[in-house]
Design a protein that fits this description.
The complex is a heterodimer of chains A (about 240) and B (about 180). Chain A is mostly helical. Helix content of chain A is about 80%, strand content about 0%. Chain B has 7 helices and 6 strands; from the N terminus they run βαβααααβαβββα. Classes of the chains: A mainly alpha (about 240), B alpha/beta (about 180).
């Protein structure tokens, strides 16, 4: 069944092009997309590699920063009172809206792109981490009270494993956000990457390159998402028999 | 009643408020109108759902929660009951094994006031009896214990002061054995 699922989208593409006969200028043919792999200089995989590195490094930094800030918010009442309202307000701002500022402040450098991703996914991960830690299940709240433990001090024995257990869905959602941010940052201020390639190809009506870049983006996201799930399976060894 | 007994059983149908009462007694819920609650410096409550961390072994679940060494654990008379699986991760244990580790942990803690909500769930009859007798004969020497149970056979042959919830929620009466028998 899963093979059918993987082949469904290509089958629709083939059907639309060869049976419905949608024109090349609206939907490039599989052959022209295949040819595009060899007609680009530098090679499209070089662009894909740059995007992959930006995506993986930016996402990793954003996830670590977000979880760390969430822990600090949970631990420190002073930090919580100082920063939580600002963080909540920033969360309401779509990170894409801040792209012009990042271009202004950091130019076309990769540093600006990484900071954009950290900002874009770190804030929601920080809030999620904080909320996970603030509302543990009743059985653990009763446990802490029964044994006179301070739950905020149980970082390695409770907080970290519990956050890791609960946060995977938010991380997967953040990965989808992060690849969008990489793409937007490459649209607006880059000389390499799949976003840059899509931007240039759009202006030259090279739709076969746009389709190829989208296929590679989807592939990158699926592989990184799969890697995150496998990594979590290893980290959360106790979930295997749940 | 609590002042007169070191071990008290509370019985009643499902949903009548037994767990809620235990949460109130151990300050896990704040009462709106009741003002007199047992005063104790160390109040513990064991809920029906086990509260072991699945990412830790049985031993770690004790040493990381209590200020206690492994030597103190192994020297306790109840250690023999759990010795065969205490070094396993909690997620690898059966429900009954987790329950026994949890009972062992709270017995090691020696609270002044202990509430147990259906503590023998998932235990086989032999271990149900063993832990009840240990709680009554040993733990209750230093700890006031309040325990809920559905099962009459748990306490067969041991006479323990018992209160009965009368009716369904909202409950307004707790009856002693004499009042309950004369209903």
């Amino acid at each position: 069944m899963s093979i059918i699922g993987v082949l469904l989208l290509p089958a629709i593409w083939f059907y639309l092009h060869y049976v419905v006969k949608i024109g090349e200028r609206f939907l490039p043919s599989p052959e022209s997309v295949y040819q595009a792999i060899f007609n680009l200089d530098p090679n499209i995989f070089s662009h894909a590699f740059d995007t992959l590195i930006r995506f993986v490094v930016g996402s990793f930094l954003g996830i670590v920063a977000g979880i760390l800030i969430g822990f600090i918010l949970h631990r420190s009442q002073i930090v919580r009172r100082l920063l939580l309202p600002t963080i909540q307000a920033l969360r309401a701002t779509p990170p894409i809206a801040a792209v012009p500022f990042f271009l202004l402040w950091f130019g076309f450098s990769d540093i600006g792109r990484y900071i954009l991703i950290v900002f874009g996914i770190g804030i929601s991960l920080a809030i999620t981490t904080y909320q996970i830690l603030e509302s543990p299940p009743e059985k653990f709240r009763v446990l802490f009270k029964s044994f006179s433990l301070n739950p905020r001090a149980q970082i390695m024995s409770f907080s970290l494993p519990y956050v890791l257990q609960e946060i995977l869905p938010t991380i997967r959602f953040s990965l989808a956000t992060a690849i969008g941010l990489v793409l937007v940052s490459e649209f607006l201020g880059s000389q390499t990457g799949l976003g840059y390639l899509i931007q240039v190809s759009r202006s030259t009506f090279s739709l076969q390159v746009v389709v190829l870049a989208n296929i590679l983006l989807g592939f990158i996201l699926v592989v990184v998402d799969w890697g995150a799930i496998r990594l979590w399976d290893k980290l959360l060894f106790w979930k295997k028999q749940d | 009643m609590l002042n007169d007994a070191s071990f008290l059983i509370i019985k009643g149908p499902s949903g009548c408020g037994k767990t809620t009462l235990l949460k109130l007694l151990t300050d896990n819920l704040l009462p709106k109108s009741v003002t007199e609650l047992p005063k104790a410096s160390r109040k513990s409550l064991i809920l029906q759902e086990d509260a072991l961390f699945p990412w830790m072994t049985g031993t770690e679940n004790i040493t990381k929660v209590l200020d206690i060494t492994e030597k103190e654990i192994t020297e306790h008379p109840l250690y023999q009951k759990v010795s065969t699986y205490i070094s396993q991760y909690a997620y690898q244990m059966s429900y009954g094994q987790r329950r026994m580790i949890e009972l062992f942990r709270v017995i090691l803690f020696k609270p002044d006031f202990l509430c147990l909500d259906e503590p023998f769930n998932f235990l086989d009859p032999v271990n149900r009896r063993f832990f009840l007798e240990y709680l009554v004969k040993e733990a209750a020497k230093t700890t006031t214990i309040v325990m809920t149970t559905h099962y009459s056979e748990d306490t067969t042959g041991i006479h323990l002061p018992t209160l009965y919830f009368h009716g369904q929620y909202p409950i307004n009466k707790l009856l002693n054995e004499h009042e309950f028998k004369n209903l």
